[in-house]
Amino acid sequence: MSTHIDDPQALRPHSVVERLRLVVAGEVHAPGTGGYDLASATFNVATEHHPAAVVVAADAADVAAAVRVAAASGLTVAVQATGHGAMAAKSDAILINTSRLSTLSIDVAARTATVGAGVRWQKVLDATSPFGLGGLCGSAPDAGVVGYTIGGGMGPIARTYGFAADHVVELEVVSADGSISRVDESTDPDLFWAIRGGGAAFGIVTEMTFRLFPLTTLHAGGLFFDIVDAPRVLRGWREWVHMIPESVSTSVAVLNLPPLPDLPEVLRGRTVLHVRYATADRRDEYTSIIGAIRALATPLLDTVTDIHYADLGAIHADPTDPMPVSERGMLLAELPVEAIDTFFATVGPDAELPIIMAEIRAMGGALARDAETPNAVAGRTAAFALFTLGMNVPPIADAVVGALDSILAAMAPWGTGGSLLNFAGGVTGEPARRVHSAWGVEKSTRLREIREQVDPKGVFAAAARW
């Protein structure tokens, strides 16, 4: 077995792959090998990595050793665990796969969980459920905990509990010089602030401790409406959102569903409107609040019921199989009647856009409040978040990005000019500009200054919007 060596300079006579194999205990894969393809595979298969080498890290020491080799070789570093939201690593990068950093421990008394960088949300949900606890998972429990959280993390009950990043207690971080440290608000307040909401440009998080909440069941699910009823339901949802308490979280999406056999028969091959809803409040007046939406039209399918918190993935029912997609997102300052009508006119069936989904998530509530320990999460003042998704498959692949951009352009009159980091859909161009706009001048400047301090040579430049 390989051992960790602290001096990559001594390894210069070797190729990058050989250098890595001398210092890494885990697997190292070279281009053109089967292991390389498997270890660099992404959930979004439209993203193709072509790094100089792939390291499947066995532990944090492997991550640190790979970073030191990259820095000594003049290469950058990219990182992924599950491949959700992956951005392509090029030939000047070493890709570090953290999927095997899979430790998980729960402190029931403290109501915290500590996870390795490779842990997916469903594992946390299943492990914490017997204790009546849960973490702030996103709509897709198959996604990685760490990547989702450091990007902000806005899930199906976010109006009640806020962003996932707001509840991080401690991080284990590999810095650009290859050192490993424990980071919290006391040990390194600037780095702790930046990573929580600033993403992966400041270091590689190999372990994270975060708060859990007393979550056992939700009154949650979705109402699927025929698209002919969509204009009335959208207008009604818009009014309803302004009246609901922050114990209720909701979004609405136009879906173009394929004729797949695993979909309910009533939905196969149809364009529908999906109202998503969740509340952890068990009082009757809150569990019945969804009745106002049911009264707008007769749903094709009604899945709203009491569910175990560990099953919250059923609310959005996001796809679980890898697929090639493009994404775009933006924040909305308001949603007047004109905006909701424009939304439907732009994404509805008459527009014939090659998209899978266009969603508006209600923000406000706990999302609008600052974290107890300040962080770099952007977009707190927005009222709604718009997210669009298209599948890059023939014959529509070349038209998808343009279609997504056209939706954002149509909604621009009501936008803030910004986007949430996790929903921006890109690391360059307009998506990157929107992320920095959401941070604002003060936060964006502070993030750049911290980045220059912790990574002056740009070792992590391939990992985020910088």
From TrEMBL:
Pfam families on file: FAD_binding_4 (PF01565)
Family annotation (InterPro entries): FAD-bd_PCMH, FAD-bd_PCMH-like_sf, FAD-bd_PCMH_sub1, FAD-bd_PCMH_sub2, FAD-linked_Oxidoreductase, Oxid_FAD_bind_N, Oxy_OxRdtase_FAD_BS
Source taxon at top rank: Bacteria
Keywords for the protein's UniProt record, in alphabetical order: FAD, Flavoprotein, Oxidoreductase
Keyword Protease: no
Coiled coil: none
Cofactor needs: FAD
Domain annotation FAD-binding PCMH-type: ranges: 47-215
The keyword Oxidoreductase belongs to this UniProt entry's keyword annotation: yes
Membrane-spanning parts: none
Signal peptide boundaries: none
Family statement drawn from the similarity comment of this UniProt entry: Belongs to the oxygen-dependent FAD-linked oxidoreductase family.
Protein name: FAD-binding oxidoreductase
